[in-house]
Design brief:
Blueprint: E1 30-31, E2 43-47, E3 50-54, E4 61-63, H1 68-74, E5 77-78, E6 81-84, H2 98-101, E7 107-111, E8 114-115, H3 117-122, E9 127-129, H4 137-144, E10 148-150, H5 163-173, H6 177-197, E11 205-213, E12 216-220, H7 225-232, E13 236-237, H8 239-244, E14 251-255, E15 266-271, H9 274-282, H10 284-287, H11 290-293, E16 297-301, H12 307-313, H13 318-331
Parallel strand pairs: 4-9, 6-7, 9-10, 11-13, 11-15, 15-16
Antiparallel strand pairs: 1-5, 2-3, 7-8, 11-12, 12-14
């Protein structure tokens, strides 16, 4: 499945090798703020490639999903290794994780679905988590030779599982089901509060789009985290976008002639540069859209401020930040 690069985006045997008995190294996962007592082990987690039984509480964890580190951090553990997504190291500037990481720096073990197996093995992980990922079977098999692996959920396409399910899977793997359930309930309550405050959102159709080069545009389907985020705020999504996407993709590619698909009540452009914004606004066919003429379109950056990144991650850590930043912008559009 193709996921958009960003400078942004849009994953029966049990896995696992021998149990590790060595003491944690300097790169081992460390407790983050919070935590709590883990549930009893063993636990078995079902996933795309079968199921994995984790016999005891994992101490050294590597996350291979693009945003998996957020849920792990929220559950009180700092991953020893993680992948890079936005060309920002996972312990970098994201405001929703700064305090969780502190001075800890995980090893970067890949980008998206290109993993450095040697680096992962060197960390001697007890557990590898790959929820928001496109992990292949051969990668799973290779990793399973020396560690436990929880691959992406099987009920959904790669990169298409709801954040709630991925959080549940991670919580179960860490023996922290109850804590994961509390995190999910808290975020669900945040979304509910916005819907109750803005009942008008439920009457509006919204689309999320981007453009990486002149004449080419992208609209995100209902399985993309960005679209899911706005749906949970109460907005209706446009089904036509899903029908235009290639099978297995979470984005529909549009030419300028197809921009009429984006003539909705609220259009959110999540872009990586001012140049991209200016280019979109200058497109003659875009100027004709009612959503543009009536100024019902929003141009939201991925970074600086990190609003677009927050709802692209769409995790238990990033969602509160995203809500705080985007709600007043949406409410201001009449």
């Amino acid at each position: 499945m193709a996921v958009l690069a960003v400078a942004a985006l849009a994953l029966a045997a049990c896995g696992g090798g021998a149990e590790k008995t060595e003491s944690p190294s300097a790169s081992s996962s460390a407790p983050a703020d919070g935590g709590g007592k883990p549930a009893a082990f063993p636990v078995t987690v079902a996933h795309k490639y079968g199921s994995t039984t984790i016999d005891k509480e994992p101490k050294t964890i590597v996350t291979l999903g693009l945003s998996d580190q957020d849920a792990v951090l929220a559950l009180g553990v700092k991953p020893a290794g993680a992948v890079d997504w936005f060309k920002e190291k996972p312990y970098g500037k994201w405001p929703w994780t700064k305090d969780k990481w502190g001075s800890t720096q995980p090893e970067i073990v890949g980008e998206r679905d290109e993993y450095n197996i040697e680096k992962i093995a060197a960390l001697k992980p007890d557990l590898v988590i790959a929820q928001y990922s496109g992990m292949k079977k051969e990668q799973y098999d290779t990793l399973s030779k020396f560690t436990k692996v929880v691959a992406q959920p099987k009920e959904h396409p790669d990169y298409g599982a709801p954040w709630q399910l991925m959080t549940q899977q991670i919580g179960k793997a860490l023996g922290k089901d109850a804590e994961a359930a509390r995190l999910i309930a808290d975020i669900d309550a945040r979304f509910k509060a916005v819907r109750e405050k803005h009942p008008e959102f439920a009457t509006k159709t919204l689309a999320v789009a981007d453009s990486f080069e002149a004449g080419k545009y992208s609209a995100f389907t209902k399985t993309d985290p960005k679209a899911i985020f706005f749906s949970e705020l109460g907005f209706k999504l446009k089904p036509e976008i899903d029908t235009l996407a290639k099978p297995g993709w979470n984005v529909a590619e549009l030419s300028a002639e197809k921009l009429n698909v984006l003539d909705v009540d609220r259009l959110v452009w999540v872009t990586s540069s001012t140049e991209a914004n200016d280019r979109i606004k200058a497109e003659p066919l875009y100027k004709k859209l009612k959503v543009n003429r009536e100024k019902r379109d929003l141009f939201v950056p991925y970074q600086d401020p990190d609003i677009g990144a927050a709802f692209s991650f769409n995790t238990v850590l990033s969602i509160p930040y995203a809500i705080d930043e985007i709600e007043p912008l949406l409410a201001a559009v009449k």
